[in-house]
Amino acid sequence: MTTAMLTTNDSIPQSPSPTGAKPTRRANPFATTRVQSVLLLVALLGSWEAAVRLFKVPKHLVPPVSDIAVALWRGLATGPLAKDGFWYHGGVTVAEILLGFVIGSGIGLAIGIVVSQMPRVETLLEPYVAALQSVPKVAIAPIIVVWLGFGISSKVVIICLLTFFPVLVTSIAGFKAVDPDRIDLLRSLSATQWQIFRKAKFPSALPYIFAGLNMAAAFSVVGAVVGEFVGAQAGLGVLILQMEAQMDTGGSFAVCVLLSVIGIVLTGLLRRIERRVLHWMPADTSKRTVNV
């Protein structure tokens, strides 16, 4: 009887002692980075609004956040074909950005691939690339507009000049950063030059290429606005010039907000593509958490 009772008691799982149990931690909704980022933005905008109202800053110098929000709402509330709305001018600017970004980045990557396969070509082109990169693009933008006119082509060329060099430089650096042991291993297996490039050089250069693409995305937005400032018939840069002529500072800030959103969306798309393409890379050590 006693043995049966002991066996039965041993088979029953014992509940942990209340004194030894660890208390469950509730998830803090403010601990996430996104929530903290939103709260920081709200605090900055609130401080901006309060400072402008408190110190009575003239609206033509620094508009309050409420005026910027009203101007942004008015611009977005218009029809997509309205010549005074944000949709029409924003569509023109986005088309310029995408075309210039794709063409300029594609040419830079193509030349980077050729240079990686032919070291003599790098030595030949290096002084010319350095000379062209040193030329301020803002200075030659009026010349490009004179050559190509006020249409979209001149803005695309300006964006290409700004996006070409970051991708070229980072891609060349990436192709040089490949591990020599991997190349020696492939050569010992009688791999061709194309197989070495596809299996070793190009995967190793992808992080560098995406870094250059991220920089090129920001430069493409700047290049579109610079080209529209110099001479254009439509675009967000033209809208900023029109609003500044009318002393509509709130509208100008609203267009700048829209340009920032375009840059954020373009960069976010590149980051998502990068995560899908570079899924084999280890996670960033700065984002790892250790549970104690």
TrEMBL record:
Spans traversing the lipid bilayer: 35-55, 97-116, 128-150, 156-178, 205-230, 250-270
Region (Disordered): 1-27
UniProt-listed InterPro entries: MetI-like, MetI-like_sf
PROSITE patterns: ABC_TM1
Subcellular localization(s) per the UniProt record: Cell membrane
Membrane topology field: Multi-pass membrane protein
Domain ABC transmembrane type-1 span(s) in chain numbering: 90-270
Keywords of this entry: Cell membrane, Membrane, Transmembrane, Transmembrane helix, Transport
Biased composition (Polar residues): 1-18
Pfam families named in the record: BPD_transp_1
PANTHER family cross-referenced by the UniProt entry: ABC TRANSPORTER PERMEASE PROTEIN HI_0355-RELATED, ALKANE SULFONATE ABC TRANSPORTER-RELATED, MEMBRANE SUBUNIT
Family of the protein in this entry: Belongs to the binding-protein-dependent transport system permease family.
Protein name: ABC transporter permease
Source organism of this protein record: Variovorax ginsengisoli
Lineage start: Bacteria, Pseudomonadati, Pseudomonadota, Betaproteobacteria, Burkholderiales
